[in-house]
Amino acid sequence: VVQREAYRPLRGSSDCDPEISRAFFHEDECITLEDNCSLFARYGVEPRFWLIFCEAFMWAMKGHNPYSIDDEKDDLHEATNKSAHGKFIAGMVALPMIEAALRRASYVRQKVFQELKICCSVQCMDARFENVGVYMFDKLFRDFPELADHFAQPDIDEMSFEIYELICAIVQQGSSDELRDSKSNLRILLKKQSVKWTELQLPIEMFSLMGKGILEALQPLFIGRNESIERLKSSLAFLFREAMQFVLHPVLLLQNLRSEASQFYEEIAKEFNWSPELLQKRLFEVFREISIHGQYTHTAEELEIGCRLAWRNSAKCIGRIAWDTLVVRDRRHCTHPNEIVNEVVEHLKLATDGTSIQSVMTVFRPQQFDEIWGMRFWTSQCVRYAGYKDSESGEILGDIANADFTSYLIEQKLWTPPVEKCAFDVLPLVLKLPGNDIPFVYELPKAVTQDIHIEHPKFNKVKDLGYKWTAVPVINNMSMTLGGINYTAAPFNGWFMTTEIARNLLERYGATKPLAIAMGFDLTDKLLARKVSAELESAILYSFEKGKTTVVDPETVGHSFVTHCKREQSVGRECPAQWSWVGGLVGPTNPAWHLEMRDFYKTPRFNYCCEPWQVVDLGGNNGQGKIKVDATDQIVLEKDSQKLRFSMPKVLIAYGSETGTAESIATSLARLLKVCGPSVLTLNEVPELTNQQMMEYTHIIIICSTFGAGKPPTNASKFFDSELKGRVTADMHFSVLALGSSLYLANFCKVGKAIHQKMEAAGARQLNNVTCVDAAQGRQNTAFNWCSLIKKAILPESLTSQVESSIIAPPSYKIRWNVVGAPSSSQERLPKKEEMRCVKNQELFEDGDISNRSTRHIELELPKDVVYKAGDHLSITPVNNIDMVSRFCRCFAHELESIAAKSEHNRTSSESSPTNNFRTTSSSWQLQMGQSFNVECVENDRTTLHPAKHLSNNNSLSEVLQRHVDFSFTAVSYVVDLLSFISTKLENKAASTPKPGLAWYFVRIAKDAVEEYYQSGESTKLDAIVAKYPTIVHFLERFGSSLCEAKPNMQPVLKLVDVLTLMHRVKPRQYSISSSDVTSPDRLSLTVGVLNYNTRVGISVKGVCSHYLGGLMPGDTVNAKVIESSFKPPSSTSCPIIMIGAGTGLAPFMAFLRERALAMKTAQSHDHAGRFGECHLFHGCRSDKEILYKDQLMEWDSDGVMQLHLAQSRQTGKPKQYVQDCLGDDPTGKKIALLLSKPETHVYICGDASMAKSCSEVCIELLQKYWNMSKITATQHISSMHLNDHWQYDVWTSQSKQLDLGIKTSIDISEHLMNESRRSMIGEFSGHSLDSIDKSI
Predict the structure, then answer these.
(1) What pTM value is reported for the model?
(2) H/E run at residue 1245
């Protein structure tokens, strides 16, 4: 786009050579022409491309400069090398660019770069160069300690080595074409580094600081070389800067986006009078969204004020006085072309509003980060007239400005003009969507393309000329940027000024002479053009007023602009204005003509866009295969139509989960998206969908964990064997949440990343990059942030508001109880392979007590054909304690008794119940627990069974509660779902209550806790609730009388079916098997720590699965299955082994040692005892009384099977010691360091994740201490062991510790929740909390 005014002038040459002296800069610092030349040279723009650039410039000037004078037009039609314009662009831009490209090519061929390669060769680097990353970070944090906040220790360790690797590649390949090849190893390393910097949100300044640190660290390498130290440093600085620009670019884009967003929200804050706290809160949300998605979403309110501000800042608009009355229609949710065009039609209707023009803007979705054009209307205005060019005479019938576009549409066979052409044929609306190669073409209904026929009150012959113009100017070809987000499709209209229409008719239709004749003017009059223009404006004004349609005259609008400027000045704002479009338009008789104006760039604002149809290639097949939609019949015109004017996203949520975490996240996300009724399936069920079913989905959201050594969960394995190509399209969006632990290094979130690649390769379109949740770093909040942003992406505020105002009712659930005495299907619940019989259950502590501290040795008999190996896991689905089940049902006693009474169940005896697990049966609600049922879903007058099988399989209530649901509140999302549901049910009641009562208090407290979680990802207030009520049973026992019981003329807030559908499925727990198939092929054993703890407010909690297992009696059956693991002993007995396990982390090592003891015994009998490597076991326990398998371990230690190292943290008379302390103590530490240096050594760590991390750090320190390794070399050595499967983890995060982490910070909040969560509440209500509600109950 060629503009007359230049907003940012390009400066001339700098005094110094930027390639040498200015080592580190980024693209925002491209100030001089040389800087820009270097930029293009770096990215490989060759000299031949600048010749094409000159031709393109001439083409742009020729076709996009309508106001050039005749001499300029003649010059533009000259050859490029003869034209003044061509010589200018060639000499001032192209030539310096070519010289820069040649200069760069010559510069990197200098001998100094060969010398630099020798300095940094492998031989030198190994000895003196590998510490560069560590040195750089040490210096960085010493000089700028605040930067350390961006890093965790694993990040520093990893990046230290990556810097070492990257500098090697830069020196060896940076001066070659490898830098320009996007697929080269160097560019792959740079891309990896860019992703890391983006994830850590490192400031741009780090690049310069990092470069200086590297130069300082490498300076010793340059001593004694053929080239000077300074020259070598300058050359390395040049290579570093050139390469790191590729790292910097995406980081810079995000930083610029954050900067623009900050400026936008500061402007918004002024308009809305936001407090500084509210502004910071909103910016935090926006930055969080940018870090995950690469962009962010404006709220409807922000969009509205942003559009109005863009109009207010538009320098070429004279009618801005009404900027704050602009009607903004948020239609970002519209994706189908028919939907979009329907909204354009609605825009036209609303804009005319009968006859009075209303300023309206309809905003469609913004341009995405991976789109070149975004969604674009190729028609510059909604109503434009065709221009038919005669191929022989060259004459044009119609609008000259649209002649090229008209010819394009006809030539490409996108539009067929009417048989009888006229000068005012309306062009079709052309819409181009990303992902579609061919544009969609729509002919707008005549009912909305309102024309005003031009006639003059005095000159009747003017009417006979047949001139007319459209009533409303709806502009399509301008983009709007709000805080870095670019809206490329935002049709906007104000109203016409008579001068605009007059100019169009005179210049584009050649109307001066015909009008002069019709008006009887002397054609030789020197002022003929002015007279005709003035009378034409009078005719236009008269015609529009006669048609009762809004139009403004230059005199009136000029005065209004002056008033607008005065208003702006009164509030301290300067009004940008371009005089040629404002003052020059109204003439010298208007005060606006004399107004001093300054045109400056102020955001937000509208921007001119180029015409994509002029440069987009549609395939070159002359229209064959083009899509043409004559969509008049598809456009909704009925004013009273009840049909929804939007398409609901169809969402598939697929998960792969071994322990239930991914499933819980999927369930919570489904509740967030419940308004669009998402399908929730396992990844194994996705291949079973037909192609037609798959194609119906607009969004596929995947949550998957990585199990063991990079393996998919059991219920996700089939997905990888399925073919996705042909089953997904570019219109289908996807996002992947990958769960994993960074302790597993190369396998961190491996499965989730592989799924992302598979979806991308199949052609689906990503909503955002794969999001990884690292359990080892305690970043579980990432999952929640991701869910909330996915909801915003799929259900934007604009769509949500339309859905909520529609007639669609949310689904409801009801319980359908079966006939009394009908059998339950639960009797055939489990396959035989998943039932194991308990044969032994014994205490391992000397004074163990299952109600206090206890660890059990449990042996299970294997079913036929079930096998296992040492190191495998056993997945067990626990059974809830029957007393907890009874307590839960007692909270719904009134409801169950009512049901029992209706079915006359209260008259049956205990024998008539199919299941009787209770000591007493005197109450009818207890009998009802044995009755089978199904949950039905009622939606849009359609009744179906609930998709969850445990609620639709004729199970009895007691069966469902014991075996299928989780009572605990360990998943914060469960608490969020419950509180949100209750708050919604109570909200109407609270709103209608004159004086705040229980409902009002509960809504305020619950909503505040939920809002904290949704808006910031923090769970402080929710943790306080969980500390007080660790299970739903505790919660219902406290509030059940108010929530679960019916009141006179009022239904209960919570019904049984509500809670059943909200409750999470019980998660299977995995235990390391502590026996070996070699020594015990028919039985396996477990080492189970029985979990008992108190929350910080003194509520006692028992571990569900550990207490279930701890209470097993010989003969009891368990729902369990063997899960294969990669945690295996070395194949050769000669390999040294280091085993580290705290508490029950000893379990897999018992299996290893049992095999080893048997092998040694067998070898001794054959005189092969010397073939066994060293074996060390580090075991952590509290005291002598809690040494697990004490006798067996002591025996193996004395027999030489292994060397036992005990770490005791509570032994009387001894200092506290943990396994990581024992590992590093002398003389053991020196011995371990020696073993770690041997390539055949295997290290195994089993236990809590934090312990495993600490042990890894100790081993790195041992290598540094005893082998003089640098930290980066030691870290790389451990990483190498891990990659070779010589370093293995079997780790978990303790459930009780998860709760403690949240509760430690909330102990004081529990008693004063209301004060903390709602400080802004006034007077007598500010002191209430859940405890005060307890008391009122």
Answers:
(1) 0.70
(2) strand 1242-1248
